[in-house]
Amino acid sequence: MLQSQMIKLVESRLRRHNLPVALELWNGQAFKLVDEPAVKVRINRPNALLHLANPSLGKLAKSYVERDIDLTGTTRDIIRLGESLCDGVVCGDKKGSRFLSWWRHSKPADRKNISYHYDVSNDFYGLWLDARRVYSCAYFRTPDDTLDVAQEQKLEHICRKLHLKPGERFLDIGCGWGGLILWAAERHGVRAAGITLSQNQYEYVRQQIRARGLDGQVEVHLMDYRDVPETEPFDKIASVGMFEHVGRANLGKYFAKIQRLLKPGGLVMNHGITAASRASGGLGSGISEFIDEYVFPGGELVHVSEVIDSLSAQGLECWDAECLRPHYARTLWHWVERLEAHAAEAKRLVGEEKFRIWQIYMAGSAHAFERGWMSLFQILAGKPLADGRLPYPLTREHVYA
């Protein structure tokens, strides 16, 4: 009796929203709700009815990952269906104590969280990332740029903003698979060092350094940013796609560490995802909870104004801030398409569940960037000299030449 009532409730909700969807139950019963459905929802287990009757985006994503439901259709149509079904409310409030935030970002916790996400399989990431395996927002000069071209443009964009010069000491905090440090060394002649908490990434970068003959010019360390020695400061520092793991409670310590690692007159580029508004602590409609459980344990988003305020409080001066929100939406859709094109091999490498996690997470993130539910900023800051000067070009022509 209760089950039949739940089925009617789900059917009624789908009809009320006039969604282009077909519904099929575990027993083969089908409901044709529109003449030309774009998405087919198959309910594999009765408990999924609860998530469809009173849905949130997080609940629907969890049901898909755990195979309580199957979804057929283009990923873009599926994501749009989810938003329409959940009435879209996606900006979450700030929540949680500063102590809880600090505890979630202790060194052991961060190492465990990073390993969970990045130590899945180098070959898995290699299926859908660009040739340099850059796992962060690309930079598209034209809509027709390939992912490989756009990622190289992003690496060069960062190097030019940092005004890298031959012989300078350059640190990349959270170096991933080494794309930036290898590019900076080969194209700009710097002495580069990268740090990561991922064992898989560390081993891959070491192999790349040897293969490219960069021993003595490029080095990589399996190390927490809090443990980087301060005995020999760096001329330039980058942090790309790592900032989201720092945590609101640790922002001051993070930028204080960077300030101590920089030479006077040095520059830092902080590239990271930010919250949509000052009042937001991430994404609502259960999305943040889904990401925390299945994708990025311990991830936290802050508004760009908090980033600038925090670095300023530690003696770093903001010189440039650039929003790359549309670039990340485009990047993520490239990743989704490439992942789906290699679906069979991806599932062989990591299994059905992890394939679904990355598929729905990246597609949902692409949609969120398109809708303005979250953003991404590159912030360039410097450590002024004793007399207050910061030796940087008067214009940005060197970036776009």
Structure explained in plain terms:
Its EC number is 2.1.1.-. One of its GO terms (molecular function) is methyltransferase activity. InterPro entries: CFA/CMAS, CMAS, DUF7884, SAM-dependent_MTases_sf. Residues 17-80 form the DUF7884 domain. Keywords: Lipid metabolism, Methyltransferase, S-adenosyl-L-methionine, Transferase. The protein is α/β, with parallel strands linked by helices and 401 residues long. It folds into 2 domains: 2-88, Nonspecific Lipid-transfer Protein, Chain A (2-Layer Sandwich), CATH 3.30.1050; 98-400, Vaccinia Virus protein VP39 (Rossmann fold, 3-Layer(aba) Sandwich). The protein contains 16 helices and 13 strands. The chain has helices at residues 2-16, 48-53, 57-65, 75-85, 98-104, 107-118, 122-128, 147-161, 179-188, 199-211, 251-261, 287-294, 304-313, 325-341, 343-371, 397-400; strands at 21-24, 30-32, 39-43, 69-72, 91-93, 169-173, 191-196, 218-222, 234-240, 262-275, 280-283, 317-323, 374-382. A 7-stranded mixed beta sheet has the order 8-7-6-9-10-13-12. Strands 2-1-3-4 form a 4-stranded mixed beta sheet. Helix 8 packs across helix 9 (179-188).
Give the structure's gist in a few sentences.
The protein has 401 residues and is α/β, with parallel strands linked by helices. The protein has helices spanning 2-16, 48-53, 57-65, 75-85, 98-104, 107-118, 122-128, 147-161, 179-188, 199-211, 251-261, 287-294, 304-313, 325-341, 343-371, 397-400; strands at 21-24, 30-32, 39-43, 69-72, 91-93, 169-173, 191-196, 218-222, 234-240, 262-275, 280-283, 317-323, 374-382.
